[in-house]
Amino acid sequence: MTVEAPERPIADLAIAPRQEREVRLGTLSRAVTQSTHTLVMEIAAALIDGGVVGDSSADMRAWLVHNLGHSQATARGLVALAERIGELPRTCTYLEAGAISVDAAIVIARHGATECEAELAELACDVTTSELTRFAKDAKPEPEAHTLDENEYIKEITWFRDEREGWWWINGRLPLADGAVVETALRRIMGGLMRKNEIGQYYPHGMQAAEA
To answer: Is this prediction's pTM over 0.85?
Structure first.
């Protein structure tokens, strides 16, 4: 491979005014980002049509490592971004314009919820990659309120008593999946208390599944 000499001698670059250097760095950084956007689009197309290594993400990552010399981390990030290209319109627009870094776009692709993508892309313009990673992991869409269907089963839990202190109860009515989690947690807690002799005898009492 032939390497051409730079257009300007290194000595000339070293004495460039600070403002000129900052402008040049910004321009080159945006150019790299825009080129990476093009690369990501090509990776996405290759995954769709299988024209390089089929539609396997793992094979594509390996190809980027062994044929283009990317690190495992870089290949993983590029493929993650390519796989979600259709879910991240704002992120891809900003990446194409050079408004956010490649690292920021990869963070959104790997950790950001689709519903929060636009907000995360806006945020990426003003925060560091580390801060964006934390925000992306924490940002979750508000869950929809759960309404029991008339045919949906629920778990009714009427829990235990303490022989030393008298009767006491924990009562609950939860959807089956949630009820199973609560029931398991209660059993583990009570088992731990029994081992420590912190309570008297207890009895699971009347657990059942019943129609809502």
So the answer is: no
